[in-house]
Design a protein that fits this description.
The structure is a homodimer. The first copy, chain A, is of the alpha+beta class. Chain A has a single domain, classed as Winged helix-like DNA-binding domain superfamily/Winged helix DNA-binding domain (Arc Repressor Mutant, subunit A, Orthogonal Bundle). In chain A, 59% of the residues lie in helices and 22% in strands. Chain A contains four helices and four strands. In chain A, the strands form two sheets. The first copy, chain A, has a two-stranded antiparallel ribbon. A two-stranded antiparallel ribbon of chain A has the order 3-4. In chain A, helix 1 crosses helix 3 and helix 1 packs across helix 4. At the A-B interface, strand 1 and helix 4 of A face strand 1 and helix 4 of B. Strand 1 of chain A pairs antiparallel with strand 1 of chain B. The first copy, chain A, binds a DNA duplex through helix 2, helix 3, strand 3 and strand 4.
DNA sequence: TTTCGTTATACTTATTTTTAGATAACGTAT
DNA sequence: ATACGTTATCTAAAAATAAGTATAACGAAA
């Protein structure tokens, strides 16, 4: 038995940002394109795209900067706001998980 | 913008207990029957029943004690283990939420 | 013995959510 | 001009979830 937790930002009852977008953005940051990121994460490009699109729409600012065309086809890189957001989300999750692990032991340590 | 969080117990990759079963059990505890609890929560009886059934199967013990028959048709009440579980889950969520609210302010207070 | 409102369970249908696939635009180098 | 690998977008399919339906057992009271 173990504890699972999930955290996300909401606005008006709609999910704005959470683990899914965060992992995806981190992968984009590492690989340089949304296409490759989707492939590495085992999801379709269209799904990856819609995840980013929805988050951006709710947030009101861009998470990635895109380029199309050119010999390499183009690619995506994180905006400063995107980088800051995933950084904060990661730090949040780290601290939260550490605390919740202790809390779990306190209340469910015996099951 | 606000933070949302969800916590649940897992075993072997399968959800065992979380907010859904907890709310349902609390309602059963208050109303005395699973039937009425399902109605009040706006879900079908069959769904309510399957929620309890799955949780009990994963946990390995009964969450409700059932009676059928009699002039009132019967009803359900929580077992001591069931009461303890929802109590602990509630306390866990309370402490967790309080902590996470502060953490939220720390990392996302400005958005 | 009939009635009543429960629980228990299986099975079918609806709805919602998720996922995949197709197509077009883009721009640089060849 | 062509080719290439991106991004962008829409539509259809599939899967997961939930709802609904039907039937049986139960037991106290009328």
């Amino acid at each position: 038995m173990k504890l699972e937790s999930r955290f996300w930002l909401e606005q008006g009852g709609e999910k704005v940002f959470g683990k899914g977008p965060c992992v995806l953005l981190e992968t984009v940051d590492r690989l340089g394109t949304l296409n490759k990121a989707a492939a590495e994460l085992g999801m379709s490009y269209s799904k990856a795209w819609s995840i980013i699109k929805r988050a951006e729409k709710q947030l009101g600012f861009l998470l990635m900067e895109r380029t199309t065309g050119g010999v390499d086809g183009g690619g995506s890189s994180l905006t400063p706001e995107g980088k800051q957001l995933i950084k904060n989300y990661r730090l949040f999750c780290e601290e939260a998980d550490a605390f919740l692990d202790e809390l779990y032991k306190k209340y469910f340590g015996d099951i």
